[in-house]
């Protein structure tokens, strides 16, 4: 057992941590912490105990990824294989080319082309058939959206290729070597495949053993069981998953069915706060089971409390923050900028913004020009700073709410960044008597762009909550 004093923690730190979770109303079932692969803290909440087989919900998705990594290692599949090529019986003349061309890698990154309806409410029990019957809304690889259904399709892919269940395959390749997951099982869907996006039931210690394996980059007792480069790739920030302008617990990036965390961490996450958080640089693993379905605030409470433990372990001294108005950090991807600079994109599905272009000037400021209601409008933005200007929409209310005052435009502060090698973000803050935010997120692939605009304001910038597909003019 690790001596907590050797990792800059004491019993009071751990008590404060647990009291925080309980006082905030988190419905905890269990908590476990490891340092350098050894458990140093473990608690269970009656009636749960160390032998409880607990539903892990979407942590199951990360098991699907691990199984696919083994198939890649054994040259049974390639990341660039088209997912549809393994399910040809579901492809019809009406199947979109966007969906047909979606790769395994794009599926693991959740940069998929379709959005499925709630499968519980559909008459069709074959979830793969349901998936491939959907109308594609964009090319795959263009924009991140959490896609639980594609995880089911990927799980069934594993079972088709191996001829055995997802769990039996992982036992053969991994879990028997770890000596864990002996009593685990995975629930099934009506088509008799494993419920691959949500059905894992196992002990907390089983998940801990998997986390140690991942942190050890695929090594068990000196044997390289899974290629370390594949594990590193899966747990690297491969795409921006900031699907609104706001930062939150799940907007730090996404790998291959792994969420990225602050402090160089990554995570497996289940919907009720079944969590496995891994911080390689700190040699720290945090696991918990809970039942906080639908309470997003509790996820943030949990993860932020864990960040506090990481800071303690790393002996981080907090510094005085800057007191400038928030702006997006400086981040320019020159390859992306060269591709999109001063190019015009036209809406393909009657979006409120009819067309747009982005002009970057000296890598420190730029202009977002767009056509709205047949008129050209502009937003000036800074890069690594704010540009202060007027909102080129309106006029709007001034001293009398609801009543529009002629020629009155709100003061704004705007900034820009490249959030990945194919995505940009423009944040517009309204800083007048009336306050609000406008977030513009755009992803580019080939000749296409996917635009998502989020408006958060009272009775102005109305109509600017939308997303849609554009094509290079």
Describe the structure.
Helix 2 packs across helix 6 (148-162). The protein is globular, with a radius of gyration of 24 Å. It has 11 helices and 21 strands. The chain starts with 10 loop residues before the first helix and ends with a strand. The chain has a 9-stranded mixed β-barrel. The mean pLDDT is 96. The protein is α+β, with helices and mostly antiparallel strands and 473 residues long.
Outline the fold blueprint.
Elements: H1 11-23, E1 28-35, E2 38-44, E3 54-57, H2 59-73, H3 97-100, H4 104-108, H5 127-132, H6 148-162, H7 166-178, E4 185-186, E5 200-202, H8 204-215, E6 219-220, E7 223-224, H9 228-234, E8 259-261, E9 265-270, E10 274-279, E11 284-290, H10 296-314, H11 334-340, E12 344-347, E13 353-361, E14 365-372, E15 375-383, E16 387-390, E17 411-418, E18 423-431, E19 435-445, E20 448-457, E21 466-472
Parallel strand pairs: 15-17
Antiparallel strand pairs: 1-2, 1-11, 3-5, 4-5, 6-7, 8-9, 9-10, 10-11, 12-13, 12-21, 13-14, 14-15, 16-17, 17-18, 18-19, 19-20, 20-21
Helix pairs in contact: 1-10, 2-6, 2-7
Report a brief summary of the structure:
The chain is α+β, with helices and mostly antiparallel strands.
Radius of gyration: 24 Å
**Regions with little confidence, pLDDT below 50 for 5+ residues:** none
How many β-strand runs?
A: 21
Q: What integer is the average pLDDT? A: 96
Which geometry do the CA atoms define? Answer: globular
- Spatial sequence of strands, sheet with the most strands: 12-13-14-15-17-18-19-20-21
Structural class: alpha+beta
User: How helical, in percent, are the residues?
Assistant: 10-25%
Distance between the termini: 63 Å
Total number of helical segments?
Answer: 11
In this structure, how is the largest beta sheet organized?
9 strands, mixed, barrel
Give the amount of beta strand, in percent: 25-35%
